[in-house]
Write the structure tokens for this entry.
Amino acid sequence: QVQLVESGGGLVQPGGSLRLSCAASGIIFSSYNMGWYRQAPGKQRELIATVTSGGGTSYSDSVKGRFTISRDKAKNTVYLQMNSLKPEDTAVYYCSARQIVFPRNDYWGQGTQVTVSS
């Protein structure tokens, strides 16, 4: 059974930091590219960061320079370090896993709420 379990969300003031974690089980972690998406109320889900199985990273313009994605192979965990948070970062954040080769399965976590407010 595949599970992606996010943690680390919460309420933070503007300018603050949070680190999200996503623990994966039931998959061969090295065979998956991992990503973080977010969805704000009334908006579409947005891809904000990815890390490949080889460690290559990419970011959306909205978070580049403020967020850092990383993965720990020993712990089967992907992280999202979020710094200089802004109110517009408020959203539900989702972890995703995409299999590199056929059948290219996609899996999602349940989401964790991040609220940036004073």
The CA atoms of residues 21 and 79 lie 5 Å apart. The chain has a mean pLDDT of 97.
